[in-house]
Amino acid sequence: MSALVLDGKKLATLVEADLTARVLTIKEKTTQTPILATILVGDDASSATYVKMKGNACRRVGMDSLSVTLPSHTTTQELLAQIEQLNNNPNVHGILLQHPVPHQIDERACFDAIQLNKDVDGVTCLGFGRMSMGEAAYGSATPQGIMTLLKHHNIQLEGKHAVVVGRSAILGKPMAMMLLAANATVTICHSKTPNLAELIKQADIVVGAVGKPRFIKAEWIKDGATVVDAGYHTVDGGVGDIDISDALKARVSAYTPVPGGVGPMTIATLITQTVMAAEKAANLS
Fold this sequence. Notes:
Blueprint: E1 4-5, H1 8-30, E2 35-41, H2 45-60, E3 64-70, H3 76-87, E4 94-97, H4 107-112, H5 125-132, H6 141-152, E5 161-165, H7 172-181, E6 185-189, H8 196-200, E7 205-208, E8 226-229, H9 246-249, E9 254-255, H10 262-281
Parallel strand pairs: 1-9, 2-3, 2-4, 5-6, 5-7, 7-8, 8-9
């Protein structure tokens, strides 16, 4: 029996079809168009590509995107001032600050300056805290996208042992909290965890979110596991954090391809949460 491919690209297309109808309803009832504001600081080519992809996704569903580009020498105070302008703009429903920002900027202070009702990328401490406590908040886009993908494919989480490899504030940590809320038993590991292979071998669900190409070896993963790779690296034509070989695909029950698995769901989640914010602003939710 071949493994189930958790196809994020295919699901993102279905999500966008639903969002197109919801955006049309917003326009008909309010004459307003949902707007996602994106902030790009500096001239990093990869970041610019990601911002462009998000703008394209907005246009596909009938939304508008407001692109703000700032020079690489921007200060924390200058960026905070820009975020405040967007917070105060009633036409903007969501704000995305593209990560990473130049080294001289206090990224956490800038993330936390985003109003909670516009934090559609789920990057604020307040949003993370509310999500962790089971209160209403927009989830961090990548882990929330993963949860949507797992739910769509009826992957059982309750009672399963999930091992999350990675502890970043906008991926590993919120991923662990979301899996815990879904009644999985969760172990959080990272690149400094001793006996990492032994811990991963116990996992029913493995989430690679460590940011290192092919860091998690195929032989560490047990037969029948569900494998979720949240990494993407340009080496060898594009690889993830997990060494998903053909041999591994023959042993596991489900896996996300790289590319085409988690990545499309991150963008789909971002625009979904922007539409949700627009619906709330218009009292349509």
